[in-house]
Amino acid sequence: MKIIFRGTRGTSPSSGEGFVKYGGNTSCVEVKLRDMQLFFDAGTGISSYRVDEGESPVSNKYFIFLSHLHYDHIQGLPFFAPMFDGASEIHIYGSSSGGLSLQEAFEQFIRPPYHPLSRTNYPAKIAIHEIGPGEIINPGEHIQKGESEHSKREDCRIETFALQHPGGSLAYKLTDSETGKTFVYATDTEMPRGERKRALVDFVRAVNLLVVDSFFTDAEMRGELDGKDKRDWGHMSFEEAVELASLAEVEQLALFHHHNKRKDEELDRLQERARALFKASFCAYDNQLIEI
User: Fold this and answer.
1) What is the rounded CA–CA span in Å between residue 6 and residue 30?
2) Most CB atoms closer than 10 Å: which of 2, 56, 218, 286?
3) Which residues on neighbouring strands pair with residue 185, listed in sequence order?
4) 291 Cα distance to chain centroid
């Protein structure tokens, strides 16, 4: 299983001299699992996927799993290269939000006057799948195994979990059916309390890679720098992310959804502090590739 961090920022893209090492694209993580290509969120990072610039597509089928529909998690979708390819088949999973179905939200987001194209202008075949927490998804059901149309593949299982964020957010746990390797994508979320915290710890327990929201520091959450208490803003501090990883005994921790104003030097310092608490942790950066 190969993981490519295509965008690691939260809120909005960042640019300038202080954002070279970790990058400035908003949330998107690609997972390549044999001949399957899966994307978790579709922030500006997903637009860096370019088949015509040296990428090697392993299939004409693409699976996109949206945590929620805030701009920094969907704003790259209209520019996803396979959308412009008539041979592509794109499956988009996510929840309803704000009184809109996922289908309605998709059609309202990608249309004039906000964008020159609407869904019907894209040549790719696009399928929308509305899901919620507590579901188990088999993307392989959309891929035939051999010649029989009734024989579907089961390359992986993806489980969903409700996170604590304004308007809601979904976490995803991917389990490789062949190797048993596990990957969790969990952003945007507060650290829940009580029974909900225990449920989150159980959901991510002993996974090989946990990618989790670490937008704030504890001091920022308490408002020590600007007088604004942010403990109900729907995000974790990096200290809480490390606590979660420690409680769940995960193999590796990727600190993710970096503050859009946090520069490279500060992220370097946070990574050092995180590693002092949980050795197998790192601040993810744009275009980083790891394999589990």
Assistant:
1) 7
2) 286
3) 172, 211
4) 17
As a whole-number percent, the residues of the chain with pLDDT over 70 amount to 94
Neighbours of 115 (CB within 10 A): 13
Is the backbone peptide bond immediately before 286 cis, with ω within 30 degrees of 0?
Answer: no
CB 105 within 8 A of CB 71: no
DSSP lists the bridge partners of residue 56 as none
Residue whose C-alpha is closest to residue 41's, from 133, 142, 146, 172: 172
Contact 248, 280 (CB under 8 A): no
Q: Which two tokens stand for residue 1?
A: 């299983």
CA 52 to CA 83: how far, in whole Å? 13
Per residue in 115-161, pLDDT tens? 999 988 999 999 999 999 999 999 878 765 544 454 567 789 999 99
CA nearest to 288, candidates 33, 91, 45: 45
* Of residues 38, 35, 52, 45, the one with CA closest to residue 3: 38
Find, among 238, 264, 263, the residue nearest to 253 by Cα: 238
Average pLDDT, the chain: 91
Q: Which CATH architecture has domain 2-291?
A: 4-Layer Sandwich (3.60)
- Angle 63-7-48 (CA atoms, 0-180°, nearest 5)? 70
The rounded distance, in Å, linking the Cα atoms of 200 and 191 is 9
> What is the model's pTM?
0.93
Q: Which residue in 67, 38, 248 sits closest to 171, CA to CA?
A: 67
Q: Where are the domains of the chain?
A: 2-291
